[in-house]
Amino acid sequence: MISLDFNFNVLTRDLSLYLENQVKVGLFGSGVLSLVLGFSAAYAYYYLISVAKKPQLISGGKKFYQFLRDQCPVVSEIYYPTFWCWESRIQTVLRPFVTAKPGSYKFELIRAEDGGQISLDWFDNDDSASHPNAATRPTVLLLPGLTGTSRESYILHMVQQSRDLGYRCAVFNNRGVSGETLLTPRTYCAANTEDLEAVIEHIQRTNEDAPLMAAGVSMGGMMLANYLGRKGRETCLKGVVVFSAGWDVFECTASLEKPLDRFLFNSYLTSCLQAGVDRHKSVLEKSYDIDHVMKAKTLREFDERFTSIMFGYPTNDDYYHDASPIHRLKSVQVPMLCLNAADDVFSPSHAIPVEAVKQNPNLALLITCHGGHIGFLEGLWPRQSTYMDRVFKQFAKAVIEQGGDLNDLSS
């Protein structure tokens, strides 16, 4: 078999000869041209050998593992990250620019037991050809990340994928982030799932005959995993997919406090959270020291001064332990697929719960070598779908249309 080294050397030589004969290179002599071509060949070789790889699929049971292999071919395919931006931080930074058309949402406010209100954005998909009956049209509940709303590009992409499948979508916006008035001095956190429970119950009552599954991104995925760990079998969700979740908050926070990641991500997210606090200052200042909160420089400081106090934790460490889904994975009783990138600085690879997943037949973990945080860009110019979108679409379809095969995964 001819080696890759030989092929690239031949390619470099042939391209050099061709360009030297066809193009007036001017100042760029043949030596420089050969150097450029040689570098390109070396980069291509490195990319194909070290970057483009099949993801690692881990499951706690053979039944779920085989279901994913059969119904979701994407889990067995090589993931080719966009070749010019496969580095994790670049993928993370560029992901919001992979745009999608805004969805046509129907807005709804739900009143919570404590007097607060929760906003839902509905995409009804009334033009669905495959599921024309609205009463039985499958519903997908979407949970955005830490400061995200229904307008995030990754949410809009999943709405598009659901529309193509003929499904309805409901986007759960955390309190105070989507323009609605904050009625009580309470926002949200990854550990508290009361609002999520209220939303799921509301959707079930509204569409009793429609199957329901859910997808969560980043903190939305953490909240969803914590919800499943608390509820066990007492949920109407048929299946769940989680993207770029932070499984151990202590490890996530420590990773984001490294100098470069603090500069690129930590400070920005802290300022976004502070902007939300400032927007609802008139309600929150009655219960919290807002001036102290606004001086926080990191997510940890923000949580110490605001989040952990709001939800009644003795210390911030107590909150971080309770917010970490890794402690509840053993109690999950619903099929849950989790996608993480090994180079995600928000959720470092050593904190991905491989061993915990192996102990629960209802769990599966898909790990790519690259992809960053909610990145997973692919293609020459990634403006359409991403690897994450393909995982979502295939898994959603499998759960809704072949979900019977997922009954009793422990068998």
TrEMBL record:
<dbReference type="InterPro" id="IPR050960">
    <property type="entry name" value="AB_hydrolase_4_sf"/>
</dbReference>
<dbReference type="InterPro" id="IPR000952">
    <property type="entry name" value="AB_hydrolase_4_CS"/>
</dbReference>
<keyword id="KW-0443">Lipid metabolism</keyword>
<feature type="active site" description="Charge relay system">
    <location>
        <position position="218"/>
    </location>
</feature>
<keyword id="KW-1208">Phospholipid metabolism</keyword>
<feature type="active site" description="Charge relay system">
    <location>
        <position position="344"/>
    </location>
</feature>
<keyword id="KW-0378">Hydrolase</keyword>
<feature type="active site" description="Charge relay system">
    <location>
        <position position="373"/>
    </location>
</feature>
<dbReference type="Pfam" id="PF00561">
    <property type="entry name" value="Abhydrolase_1"/>
</dbReference>
<dbReference type="InterPro" id="IPR000073">
    <property type="entry name" value="AB_hydrolase_1"/>
</dbReference>
<dbReference type="GO" id="GO:0046470">
    <property type="term" value="P:phosphatidylcholine metabolic process"/>
</dbReference>
<feature type="transmembrane region" description="Helical">
    <location>
        <begin position="25"/>
        <end position="48"/>
    </location>
</feature>
<dbReference type="InterPro" id="IPR029058">
    <property type="entry name" value="AB_hydrolase_fold"/>
</dbReference>
<comment type="function">
    <text>Phospholipase that may play a role in phospholipids remodeling. May selectively cleave myristate (C14)-containing phosphatidylcholines through its predominant phospholipase 1 activity, cleaving preferentially acyl groups in sn1 position. In parallel, may have a minor phospholipase 2 activity acting on acyl groups in position sn2. In addition to (C14)-containing phosphatidylcholines, may also act on other medium-chain-containing and oxidatively truncated phospholipids.</text>
</comment>
<keyword id="KW-0735">Signal-anchor</keyword>
<protein>
    <recommendedName>
        <fullName>Phospholipase ABHD3</fullName>
        <ecNumber>3.1.1.32</ecNumber>
        <ecNumber>3.1.1.4</ecNumber>
    </recommendedName>
</protein>
<keyword id="KW-0472">Membrane</keyword>
<feature type="domain" description="AB hydrolase-1">
    <location>
        <begin position="138"/>
        <end position="379"/>
    </location>
</feature>
<dbReference type="GO" id="GO:0051793">
    <property type="term" value="P:medium-chain fatty acid catabolic process"/>
</dbReference>
<dbReference type="GO" id="GO:0008970">
    <property type="term" value="F:phospholipase A1 activity"/>
</dbReference>
<comment type="similarity">
    <text>Belongs to the AB hydrolase superfamily. AB hydrolase 4 family.</text>
</comment>
<dbReference type="GO" id="GO:0004623">
    <property type="term" value="F:phospholipase A2 activity"/>
</dbReference>
<keyword id="KW-0812">Transmembrane</keyword>
<dbReference type="InterPro" id="IPR012020">
    <property type="entry name" value="ABHD4"/>
</dbReference>
<keyword id="KW-0719">Serine esterase</keyword>
<dbReference type="GO" id="GO:0016020">
    <property type="term" value="C:membrane"/>
</dbReference>
<dbReference type="GO" id="GO:0008126">
    <property type="term" value="F:acetylesterase activity"/>
</dbReference>
<dbReference type="GO" id="GO:0051792">
    <property type="term" value="P:medium-chain fatty acid biosynthetic process"/>
</dbReference>
<keyword id="KW-1133">Transmembrane helix</keyword>
<dbReference type="GO" id="GO:0047372">
    <property type="term" value="F:monoacylglycerol lipase activity"/>
</dbReference>
